[in-house]
């Protein structure tokens, strides 16, 4: 099945599992990254996006209308933690037409995964949302900026049934 030049393959992940994102380009950050799905809001992944574009939000915290909304439509957007609820960030990206949202920790040295939970406002989120460590998110963002890239190409989510494949393409700054 092809939608918006992105190949989509049926697959399902539950909120209790980690999922993985594979960065294809730029090569400097072409690794697998562990993500934690939102606990009680958003939709589950029931497909994989292949060679999808991952862009970073402007403003970074994504708590208000995105100034780069024209770049977010039909793409996966990464938003920095802080400033508002996880749900608000995802809804702002949803309004801009994002396919999915990755919230990364605001602490650039953190390798911790936090639980993204509903903020109790009873709003409807209609896309997948997940959390990435600050170390991974900031590294990808700074690499894109230093290379002058507007986006990274990713496969998301990747169903890694064995850790062997993940360990072979694990980011060198992540120790498991």
TrEMBL record:
All residue ranges annotated as the PA domain in the record: 52-140
A Pfam family per the record: PA
Keyword Flavoprotein applies: no
InterPro entries according to UniProt: PA_dom_sf (IPR046450), PA_domain (IPR003137)
Alphabetic keyword roster: Glycoprotein, Signal
The keyword Hydrolase is assigned to this record: no
Top-level taxon: Eukaryota
PANTHER family: PROTEASE-ASSOCIATED DOMAIN-CONTAINING PROTEIN (PTHR22702), PROTEASE-ASSOCIATED DOMAIN-CONTAINING PROTEIN 1 (PTHR22702:SF1)
Protein name: PA domain-containing protein
Source organism of the structure: Macrostomum lignano
